[in-house]
Sequence to fold (200 residues):
Amino acid sequence: MCPARNDQICAVCCGTKRLVEIRCPSDCPYLTTAREHPPAAVVRQNRQDVGLLVTFMRDLNTRQSQLFFLVATFIAQYRPSDLASIQDDDVAEAAGTLAATFETASKGLIYEHRTPSVPAGRLLSSLKAALAEASGGGAGSAFERDVALILRRIEKAARGMREANNPNPRALIALLERVVQQTADAPPDASQETPRLIVP
Fold:
């Protein structure tokens, strides 16, 4: 019996559609068991994801790490209005172009760099608006330098996935989606305060 559908469901559908097509309640006993005893393939994937994230976030300070997760979460949850999916190439192009804009702004020059592709341009515009909202109007040269650094890391990560001959054109996006999903699925820790973006 599936508590989300309130109907019978086969074990295969439960295992493959759990949290993908089916919105499982947090008290579902099958979901709890799966979290306590994940398959070996999931454990290996999690370790690989963590290893890559550590590489991407090497030498970042607290505020930069928060910015990294802000951008990563935005990309993982980004859904274009035209329902066309984006790929790692679009992420690399948008991140690199927006980084160039922030790098220029940190030097006191206002110049909007543009992407040649439409999907990357839409991602860039949406990401720029999200970063402006996160800054709370307190953006300055230090913030712009940090954002540019994070966007360059994202760009490098996306291009690195492609250069590694990864057959999945959405390898980085899939990794970020898995990390964001794991964070959302993790039980809340009442002893920890919700992190806030630190803006100078």
Summary: DSSP finds eight helices and no strands in the chain.
